Structures are given as structure tokens and as C-alpha cells.
Amino acid sequence: MSTDPEKSNTQAVVASINDSNDHKDSITDSLPSYKFFQSAKGELSNYDSTDIVLRTKINLINDALDEIGFTWYHFKLYCLNGMGYAVDSELTFIQSSVAQYVRYQFNQTYPADSHAIYAGLLVGAIFWGFGADLIGRKIAFNTSLLLSAIFAILTGAMGNFATYCLFVAFSAAASGGNLVLDTTVFLEFLPSKYQWLVTLMASWWGVGQTIAVLTTWLFFSHDEYICSGGLGDCPSGENMGWRYVWFVNGGFVLIVAILRLTIIKLEETPKFLVCNQRDEEAVLCLQKIANKYNRSCSLTVEQLQECGQITGNENFLSNPTFMSTIKSIKKHIKVLFSNKLMALSTSLLFSKWTLLGISYPLYSNFLPIYLATRGANTSADSTAGVYRDSVISNASSIGGGLIGGAILYLVPVLGRKGVMIIGGLISMALFFGYTAVRTRSQNVALSSSVYVAINIYYSCLYAYTPEVMPSSARATGNAISVACMRGMACIVPAIAYFSDTSSSIPVWICGACVGLISICSIFLPFEPSKQRVA
């Protein structure tokens, strides 16, 4: 590998810092300058002020990934991690799609099942996300979907509303880390020039929700699978449709879980290994990929060790106690606010995800209720027709992720922030326009447009969040971001229950929230489309 002056200078700084009593001050002083409203320049790793040695090692790992390039291994990761994305949205849309008939059967009016799924997703994001920075990404990748599939299948077999809600929560908790981990794992193996693929991967989110509403439509289009009565007048034998939906989708998740275990043998990400003082394993991981696909990888253990010993993170597995767990989690959270720039970036992202927790669930979870009150001209005259229209709208959402990724590839000057602003503002306009819907064709066309536009925004936000998080705390930061969204989503069912969901107010709230978070993108300090991730 050729000598890089910047690396040599950095290593010199490392040596001087090791002899300095003002470690943190020296690191902070070495941060590149930043002007408000302009994206910070240079490697994103340079803005993690917790450990300059770790900075240097991460840059070497990035050099090795760029040297290896894109391989068949990365393509398999794209597909299998994308399927994890799909499962996350699939379970949410299953619950909302079958909720009416589940509540009819168990004579329930309060949407406790909606609380259950978002509570499960919240717990899953925190558990799997925090755990990924402690014990690694590999365990969660291999087990989360398998557990989710088992719980999803059992959900369809429940005999009362309490156990139904419990297993909805269990299944959601098992899969709730996918949105956190799938982007993290994929990103930490990607060469820098292919980072835009993380945005494109969000198209799988649309695939998941399409599968959910498609299976619901297939079963609910047959009268023998759904009851004709109302609350308390739906015996199980005449209302099997919702159970079959859970069984079929649980089976799909099980297939994906098996594919993850058989098609690809996931290696622990080299960045996680380096962050946890496992340099030899990091180099071995990269060498294995390079050798398998006949690529070159000149990184050696000696090069990493020459950088010195990292001080900002420890190998948790060397002392896995309760107190060390708490200590490590606190340290990871502290990394997210290690300097003013990181604190600004992290705070803005947490705020954006929190507002998303209000807007998206209000729109997606309660849209059927709103549409049902708009009169015969806006909805089909049969249950099958209503779900058929829903399939069209949800299938359109796949285009959002594809368009978001395509814009980044074809018009790179816009960057992540530019695409988020465009997608968010278009979504806001379409949300507001939704209040004027008067016909069924308008309903299908506008709802399809909304799903496309909002997924352009989401695709970039889902990718941007892990991209700007430091390697040592990437899963933790990603988990807290997603938890902010799901924490707010937990209270949305109560808001909808005690308010008038037949009015246009939820739609206006959704539009206002999306508009606000799109404008907030202007103030984000980093633009990872022009920088290598930490």
C-alpha cells in the first residue's frame, strides 16, 4: 500500500497524544473546521473525537474495503439485509390490515394490539441495537428473524385478545432490530463509492408492506374467511382469514431466516472488530472476502497495530457483567455527543425520528378508518376491493426507495440532504392534498403518490442515520433514533382512539411533521455522499 501523508501525520499525532496528559483536548483541537449551513469536510471518522487511534484504524479499514471493491458477497448482503427491512414493515402492516377482524372476534374496541406492536418494535430496537455494539452484529443477524417467524406463526393461533397482543409484541420485538442492524451490517462492509446502495435498500421496505396487504387481500376477498357480523359476533370458525394471514407471513419470515443462515455465512463486521480491539480478526475477515472473490487486500495486522492501542472503547466480551454492560452503553451514548458537531448531528436526527413517530403511524395505521368515512365514491363497495386498492398503493411505495437511490447515483450533487428535502416537501404537499380526495380513482392515485414520495424521504433518512454515526456506537445511535420514532408511535393509537380519526386533522398533522423534518435536513452538519463513513 502506498504511503499516505495524511495517515503519516495522523500516526505522528497518535504518538504525541499517547505522551500527553491533555488527550481529549488534543483530539478535539484536531477536528476539521465547520461552517454553519455547509457540510463538514473530510473523513467522517475525523469527527469522532473520542479516540484518534480508532480514527486512524477506521480509515485503514475503509481503504481496505475500497481496495476489495463490490463483490458477490455484498450483493447477497444487499438482498438478505433488505429482506430484514421487508420483515420490519411487513409485520406492522399485517397487524394494521387484520386489526378490524381481530377486534370483531374478541369483542374489542380499544386498539391495544396497535400499542403492542409498536411497544415490541421499540423494545426490539433498543435490545438488538444496544446489544450489537456490545456483543456484535452477527448474533442478531442470525437469530432475530428466526425468533420473529416463530412468534408470528404463534400469533395466528391465539385464542384471546390478551395473548394475541402478547405474541404480536413478541414477534415485533424479535424483528424490531432489523431496521437498526441491516443498514449497520451492510454499511460496514460497503466500499465508499457504493454507499448509495444503503438508500436503494429501502425499496425492500415497500416489498414487505406489499406482501402483507397482498396476502390480506387474497384471504379477505373470500367471504368464507371473514365474518359478516360485527363486534362479538365473529366466531373463530367463521373468521379464519386473519389467522391465515399471520400463518402465511410467518412462514415467509421463516424462509428468509433460513436463507440468512444458509446462503451467506456472515462474518463479524471489520469495523466492529477493530472498535473492540480485535485487529487480527478484522484483517482475517477482510482477507477471506478478498481471497474468495480474487480481490486484493494489502491491509496487515502490523499496520493496524502500528497505530497504537485504542482508548475510547473496550472489548465488552472480555468482562461481560451487568455493571460493565451499563458502563459500555453509557460510553457508547457519550460517543454520540463527543463534540459540538456530533451533538448537533445526533440531536437533529433524534428529533427527526421522533416527529416521524407521529406522522407515519397516523397515516399508515389509521388511513383505512379515514377513507371509510369519505363516502362510497372514495372506496370500493366490497372488502376485497378496499384491500385491492391498498395493494396498488403499497406496491407503489417500492418505487420510493428505487427513486431515492437512483437520484443519489445520477445526481450526486444533491446528496442525502438534498434528496431528503425534496422527498419531504413533496410528501407534505401530497398529505395536504389528500384532504381534497373525493373519488376512488383520486384516492388510489394520491395514496400511491404519497407512498412513493414519503419513501424517497425515508430511504435517505434510513441510510443517513447509520452513515453519520461513529463505528463504535453506530448500532446504539441507530437504535435510539428508531426508538424515538417507535416510542412516539406507541401513543398514536391512544391519540386516534380518543380523537376523531374520520376528520382530516391526522392528515394535516402528518403533513406538518414531514414538512418540518425535511426543513431540518438543511441544518444537518454532515453529507455522507461526499464522505467516507466512520
TrEMBL record:
Key word Transport present: yes
Signal peptide start-end: none
PROSITE patterns named among the record's database cross-references: MFS (PS50850)
Keywords from the UniProt entry: Membrane, Transmembrane, Transmembrane helix, Transport
Domain of life, per lineage: Eukaryota
UniProt domain Major facilitator superfamily (MFS) profile: residue ranges: 52-530
GO CC terms of this entry: membrane
A single GO molecular function term of this UniProt record: transmembrane transporter activity
UniProt topology in membrane: Multi-pass membrane protein
Compartments reported by the entry: Membrane
InterPro entries recorded: MFS (IPR011701), MFS_dom (IPR020846), MFS_trans_sf (IPR036259)
Transmembrane parts of this sequence: 115-132, 139-161, 197-220, 240-263, 341-363, 391-411, 418-437, 443-464, 505-526
Matching Pfam families: MFS_1
Protein's UniProt name: Membrane protein
